[in-house]
Each structure stands twice: as structure tokens, then as C-alpha cells.
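Worked Example 4.2. Read the sequence first, then its C-alpha cells.
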Amino acid sequence: MHKTIAVLGLAAALALGVSSVALAAGEKVSVITPYLAATATGEMIEAFKAKAAEYQWTVDVVDTAGDMGAFASRVEDATTSGANAIVLVSVDPAQIQDQVDKAKAASIPVVTIDGAKNAATALNVTSDNYVLGETMTKFLFEQLGGKGNIVRFFHSAHPGVHQREIALDDALKANAEIKQVGEHYVQVPGQIDDSRSAMDALLLANPGDGAINAVWAAWDEPGIGANLAIEAAGRKGIIIAGIDGNPQAIELIKGCTAYVGTVRQGFGEMANIAADQLNAILAGGPPEKDELFAPVELITRDSLGVTCN
């Protein structure tokens, strides 16, 4: 790996007249995820690839389509095949601790995007997922007027989603008049179709006005699936909020559907931060911190300037 330059981001290097080639050009970076089908994961990987092109890295993207066994194997493959760095997207490295430990032992830096901190990884770049969950939950409970019945769509295997669930649990403890009457562990990939089927079942199990007042979706795809089921059933008086700022969710908010809000993560910012920090690592220095957060934004009809009758 190139170690001729101290810790510099690309912009700083260019300001000094140093090319990205001198920093870490030609490095082989393996980007591995089980969740490429998720819109947010795809967005992060595309942004990372664009930034990597500026650094003139060779990037190999591998998707295991929800297969965690294959995911662990692909990480091990990257370690043994001469990768200069490994980037894991939307996973907790603790799920494949042995493979991450082997990469560290081989002096291959492992960076996670939208993941979790780990003693064997160099850096995690994410949102503060508890704050994401707290922000969305507070908004949803306010829309309910502090009273009502909700259902939860979740996927605890994702470390960030689990933090959002903890925020919901804390909010439910603090709001005795809001009750959770159902939940569904979302299957990935296929989360929209899976969530639509689950919402169909939840609606059948909770018939009548007021039986369900809101859907708490840990990310937007389950909320999109739930919205499809609600529309097909013709059920009124149910609202949905999610997380990620998925473009389809934003269109549903604009369209005055049951979808009323989402919390936008800075996915592109995460990827850019991760690439800049990885460049610093490949240049022989440490990252700024072992965990960095990108900004978030609550998106609602009010913030979009939409009025619904």
C-alpha cells in the first residue's frame, strides 16, 4: 500500500498539488454486502464507487442476496485474494467476527458503512441510529396525538435497525396510551412484498376502525409494502412513518397516502466519508475516529410544502 503521504483527504491533497495517484491509486477494494437489493444499500455503494474512482481504486462489489453464510465466505475470499481493503455495507461485523479478525491479522483494513463499531475494524460510518429511531417515533406519536395502536416492522439482524427498535421500546415505555398490537420481522431481500403480505395478515387479525392506527417501519421498504396492503384493503385512519428517505416513500408522502413521514439518512455522505477516511488509512495514517456519523433530516408533508385535504 502507498504510504508516501500523511493523512489527507482528496480535496486537501489536491490543494497541495498532490495527485490522488500519489495517495493510494491502484488499490484493490472489496465491497461486500448481503443487501444490495435494498435501495439505501445500493445508494451507498454507488456513491462509494464514485468516490473510489476519484482515488483511482479498483472496486469489486459482491452481493450475497441475504445469505450470511455466503457473506462470511466472500469476506474470507477477499482476505486471501489480495484485497488492500474490505468495505462491509449494512452489516454488523460481529456477525462474521472470525473473518474480520482474519482480515485484521492480515493487515487488511476493514471499514463498515451503515454498520457497527468493532475492535477488529478500522472505522464505521453511519447515522446515529438511536437518534433516527427517536426522531421518527416522536413524529409518529405526535401525529397520533399520543394515543393509539401501532404495529412494528423490524429486522434486528441489522445493527442500525436494532438501535431504532430500542428507541421505539423506550418511547413505548414513556407513552402508556400508545400500544403495540402486532409486529413483523421483515425478510430481506424481498422486503416490500414480504411486508405487504404481513400487513395483509395484520389487518385481518385487527379488523375495525381504530384497531390499528399506525405502522412503525424501521426503514422505508416495509412501510411501502404496508401502504400497498392498506390501500388494497381500503382501510382508513392508519398512518405510516419510516426511515431512510427512500424516493418512493417521499413520493407517497407527497401523494397524500397513509405515508406521512420518513427520516432521511445521508447515505451519499456516509460513503464519501468512508472513502476519504479509507484513503487516509491506505496512506498510512489513522482515521479521524473509529466511528463517524452523517447528518439526518425529518421529511414530512410540512417540510415538502404539501397540503392534503
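Now turn to a second chain, presented in exactly the same format:
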Amino acid sequence: MEAIYAFCVGILTTCGFFLVLRGRTFTVVMGLTLLSYAVNLFLFASGRLKLDGAAVLGQSIEYSDPLPQALVLTAIVIGFAMTAFVVILAMRSRADQGNDHVDGHIPVQSTKSRISEKRHS
């Protein structure tokens, strides 16, 4: 179970980094969201993965640590606020600059792609 969990956290982290390095603001926002999900899963796993473990002492023989659960709840709220802020920032940037590229400049197309576009049109 731990190996599958670690694999899922690794996949989320890898996809998040890949999307953050893209040139459009929407993919950067999606990448940041995936990275926050990966961090939430990592924080949750830091309290050891247990089945049927109560978060309250005295409710069962085995208990799970409630601190990582509280950290994950806090991280979810902070992640939602951060995502909303970045989306508003991206919308404002698109309105001001007229495009949604991260650096604000539309990349120059190579001459080969221009020639192929002229042939197809």
C-alpha cells in the first residue's frame, strides 16, 4: 500500500513540475494545483498510513496521529486561496497583455512552421 501511495505522490509531483514549466498561465496554475495535492498527500502520509485507526485517543486500540490531518486541512484551505489568487492574477495579466503567456511575449514561430502553414492554407 505504501509503494502505491508513494508512486501516486511521485506521479503528481512529476506532472506538476512538468506543467509549471510550460509557457501558458493555465498550465502553470494546473501544475501548482497538482503540486499542492502532492504536498497534501505527503503530509497525510507523514502520520503513518493505518487502516481503522481513530483520530481520537481512547476510541480504539490503535489510533492515527491527528496532527498531519490538521496540517492537511490547513494546507487545503491555503491551497484553495492560492489557486484563486493565481487565477485572478492570470486573468488580469491576459486582460492587460492580450495573451496568456507567462512572460507576456508571444513566441516567434520558426520559418519552417510558417512555410508549412502557408502551404496548408
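Notes for the reader: The mean pLDDT is 82. The helical segments are 2-20, 25-45, 66-97, 111-120.
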